[in-house]
Write a structure and sequence with these properties.
Length: 136
């Protein structure tokens, strides 16, 4: 014999609906799982320090011509002598080197020049006139 409970329309039920509570808790748990690794992940970055205001920064310009000639501050220089001329830039914290290659310059010359710059220990390096390479 099966008994059925008949509930009148005006009778109140004392059961709690916990489905929305479970849904909210699951959403919060997923958000917590996603955001905690991002907050604990650290990437070490060496930020530049402020420069002394009493002297302007030293900047040298290295131009690479289409024929492969390399000029440092407008004066022609051989690849063998370039490393020794760039060594003071490596020790000076405020010094930087700007490379201005000709669009028709050979890549081998540019690559060899970058290797010499790296061997000299120059860390502050920039490129001039990048807009003209946009079509390449």
């Amino acid at each position: 014999m099966v008994r059925r409970r008949v509930v009148a329309d005006c009778e109140l039920l004392g059961d709690l609906n916990i489905t929305p509570l479970i849904d909210v808790m699951l959403v919060l748990l997923v958000m917590f799982i996603i955001t905690v690794p991002a907050m604990t992940h650290k990437v070490p970055i060496d930020l530049p320090t402020g420069m002394a205001a009493d002297r302007p920064p030293t900047m040298q310009r290295l131009a690479i011509a289409a024929d492969g000639a390399v000029r440092l501050d407008g004066a022609p220089i051989a690849m063998a002598a370039l490393a020794t001329r760039l060594e003071p830039l490596a020790t000076d914290a405020g010094a930087s080197l700007v490379i201005d290659p000709d669009p028709q310059a050979r890549y081998e010359v540019f690559d060899r020049t970058l290797a010499v710059i790296r061997q000299a220990g120059v860390e502050r390096l920039g490129f001039a006139n990048n807009a003209r390479f946009a079509r390449f």
